[in-house]
Structure prediction request, 835 residues.
Amino acid sequence: MADFDFADIAPPLTPDYALLEANKCLFCHDAPCTLACPTHIDVPAFIKKIATGNLRGSARVILEPNPFGHSCARACPVEVLCEGACVLNDRDEQPIKIALLQRHATDYVLERKLKLFQAGKPTGKKVAIVGAGPAGLSCARDLRRAGHAVTVFEAKPLPGGLSTYGIAEYKLKADVALAEVQDILDLGVELKLGVMIESLGPLLEEYDAVFVGVGLGRTKSLGIPGEELEGVVDALTFIEHLKTHPYHETRVGKRVLVIGAGNTAIDAVTQAKRLGAEESTIVYRRGEDDMPCYDYEYELAKRDGCAFRFHALPKRIVGNGRVEGLEVETSDKKCETIPCDMIIVAIGQGPRGEFVVPQGNPRVFVGGDCANGGAEIVNAAAEGVAVARRIHELLGRSHG
Amino acid sequence: MADLRTDFAGIKSPNPFWLASGPPTNTYGQVAKAFDQGWGGAVWKTIGEPIINVFSRYGAVDLGPTRMMGFNNIELISDRPIADNLKEIAEVKRNYPKHAIIASLMVESKRAAWHEMVKQTEDTGADGIELNFGCPHGMSERGMGSAVGQVPDYTCQIVEWVKEVATIPVIVKLTPNVTDITYIARAAVQGGADALSLINTINSIVAVDLETFEPQPSVRGKSSHGGYCGPAVKPIALHLVSAVAKDPQVTIPISGIGGIGSWRDATEFIALGAGSLQVCTAVMHYGFRIVEDLIDGLSNWMDERGHRTLADVRGRALPRVTKWEELDLNYHLLAHIDQDKCIKCELCWTACEDGAHQAIRRLPRDNGGPVVEIIEEACVGCNLCALVCPVQDCITMEPVPNDFAPVTWKEYAAGKGKLAPRSEQFHTATWSKSR
Prediction:
């Protein structure tokens, strides 16, 4: 059986390297890295604590504002967030390796199962959370710390949302994401898996407040003939399968086309290549400079030997039962069929059509991808934490 | 090409870089290797009645990832028989006649014992003798080392005994563990010393293991104060060398010791009056090979500035070391921030606001322009912002000309001279949330 390379693309720092890197941090005041983080982690503070050997305190500085600080250390687009804002960039140097230092501190507490947070004294109030993704669980953690009873409803068999199911395997593995989730659940969160909530009505009768963090819906369809052919999959399903099964059980073609050029498309094209595809190619209707993925993601795909077809507009998937090729229209309006045996569609997710959030109810809150249209784990965590505060204020008021 | 040849109280060496007495100069093999690699001289590990050492002898202070910023030891003098040490000294001198070889000595405070030791040493052909009146640990409990060097009368007495028989130059190595080192230096001069060397190590406990509460270095759970050295002690050594060098009663050469690791360190010692330089900790850290850059760096620096010999440099900074009361009160400075170089870390603001004179103003980060600016009327020119700034030459201290003649505190207190006006804000800055 082939060996698959899904080792971390950003391996952890050794203790010596972490100390060296931590001591490079200037300890800025009003630090740009902190301002750039959606959860406003006090980055210089946690790095200074690594330098003094206070890893427990360091992890607390990270996880207090960001319950998914562990996932974020591996999955955050730090190049456009904290590390991109590091003042060392202005000294024409590499920025501080903030993500790896964050991982160094959070790994320390997760590996030792140190409990940094405790449930608060019971308030008698009950909150329902729909969706066990980063937004819902971040909200759940802080509500438990405030002493409110929390029940989380999740349609999928595992909690964690895209943190568990949707991050490229070489960045964050499901078991790591689940360990972080377990830490939150250990605060006494009731989790109901495999439960699809159809309507908020019954929840509003039973609970004092409801938080909706259901994420986005399925990958959008291309709207071209042939999408039903065998061998056409959507990117999220493909990545989810890879992350929840032994590697050899995820089918991959010899010649794979990935339609789309966002960050999920990059995840798909690189993971397909690493699963054994001989050719793994991005097909994009516009040009290189128009690609919505981050620059460093593009670099990752190039480094993995993936190919790119720009200015190729998909018109039709051809095949006889199974996919055999993708007919595209090129920039000079000519039609061309690119032979392939697998097509992965990665053109973004649509909203959840089946789930309508009632507007104007003061006991209903939303957060995460379903509220912001789709962003990073760190955004969902920030929103979950912010909503927890609002819910606590609401319940505190009605309490008194 | 700069001429680094050194004549120190009659002791000649091809360059001023000597190994200090310590673990690197314990054997023939070490000293011969060091001379082969370029060292100009060596002060042998202190010889006396052989002692018994403890296991675990060294401790260190790291600064972040930098190892051994400070270093200490509880090792005693040589544990090898006197005869073996003297035989090897003779052998080194025979094989390296142009290098300086100096025997460091420490025996009990008896005239006969010193006479005997000095005579035996002279038979080796050594170029000089260094009297170890400085070790602050272990030997001092037995009435030797710093127990001698902390009492001017003892220092003078033993130097006299040694000089009664010595025909080669006698260097007295001073301890910094005293209230005023110049008293000891004068006592050594009075006793007839030909030269001084300083500093020996500083009394210290380098660390406590927080798991076990054992002070370091630990000897079966216990420790004892040891001698501190390494880069951390250089500023103390520079001060003491300058204090002795400026003392009008001390007219003999000074060998500079204390935290020398680079040619820059060495050159600073020379500028403050050192005639030769002794190095130990840096060699214990990085080996004898560091002498190559000590020589190369000093030579290049001298060549670039047209200094031909060490005498051109020696003591050049000394006239600039004065009493505080002789400093000009009318010399005013103002911090200047080069906004093109600023990387917006705001460390200068934090330091000035919390640690100095609240003379930097913060501006909103989101305006795209500068984030800090100097409040000129509040700036006292203290240097702190320039010292914390992580960008070279971003914050500079610029002189502010005035029409007032220089006036020192000494003059001013005597009713002479006029003070240039100073801003009221020097003293009245107050904290406010809006800053």
The longest strand of chain A covers residues 312-320. The first helix of chain A runs from residue 15 to 24.
